[in-house]
Amino acid sequence: MALTRSPACDGRFLPARAEVLGRAVFAALGGIVEIGAVRSTGTRLLADVSVGTFLRPRQDELGRLMEGVRAVGRFSGEVMAIADELGYFRDHEVPAASLLLWSEGIAGLPDPVERLEEPARVRRMCRIGADLQLTRLLHALVTAALAAGTEPGEGAARSAEILRVACGLAEPTGARTTPAEPADPRTTPADVHRMWRVAHLPAILRPASEAPDWGKAGYRACDAELERLVEGEGAGPVRPCV
Q1: Partners of 178 in the β-ladder
Q2: What secondary structure does DSSP assign to 11-74, as a single string?
Q3: By Cβ atoms counted within 10 A, which residue in 83, 94, 195, 236 is the most buried?
Q4: Is the dihedral of CA 26, 183, 105, 46 positive or negative?
């Protein structure tokens, strides 16, 4: 996702560009919510999954998260409405194909394909998918903040708070588990920051990169500020985004 805003744009960008940036954020959040809904059952049986049941007691968290997204990217109401249009935050089924999508097929496609629904495979796709989508969420947030002209310190601080909530959604505390299948270890914001740094920054910051100098400086500043904010954090209580 390349930066195209000029520093002379007063933090405004074309609506079409804002829509692309917003969709990147909401897609990652959609994956995080679906994965969290699967994990909250503890059974890893997709027939037991209800996104509505998962989100119903988490409306305050989701609301704070979405307000944080709006602020970090300076998104308009029209862009924020895309989240409702995509339908990730309404009750819906979560098929095995969605988990395959969120995990990028890293766990492989079994033969026969029906084995995708096996609990052990579902668990692995959830683990891989959570790491992928949390990392993509952070990259989408940082990129949207820089493109909007949000000051790197503010953008990093808001992104860190969003990430804390998102980590809690991806790996909900108190999810039911069986004695043979203990709860997965939680991915912390510090984990996500380090994955993001090695997955995305080398291509942006290398000398031959087409990223503008102001963009490179912004990513470096956000990286340093995120490191200060989240390194050393454990899986503590969820805190507000704003």
Answers
A1: 181
A2: T---HHHHHHHHHHHHHHHHHHHHHHHHHHHSS--GGG--HHHHHGGGHHHHHHHHHHHHHHHT
A3: 83
A4: negative
Query: At a CB cut-off of 8 Å and minimum separation 6, what does 117 contact?
Result: 45, 46, 96
Supply 150's token pair. Answer: 């949000």
How far apart CA 163 and CA 239 sit, in angstroms, is: 10
Rg of the chain over CA atoms, in angstroms? 18
Helices within 56-211 (DSSP H only)? 59-73, 77-86, 96-102, 119-148, 152-170, 189-205
Q: pLDDT tens digits, residue range 115-172?
A: 999 999 999 999 999 999 999 999 999 999 999 999 999 999 999 999 999 999 999 8
Q: What is the pLDDT of residues 1-20, one digit of tens each?
A: 656 444 434 344 455 689 99
CB 72 within 8 A of CB 155: yes
* pLDDT tens per residue, range 18-62: 999 999 999 999 999 999 999 999 888 999 999 999 999 999 999
Q: Is 237 exposed, middle or buried (0-12, 13-18, 19+ CB in 10 A)?
A: exposed
Is the whole-model pTM more than 0.90?
A: no
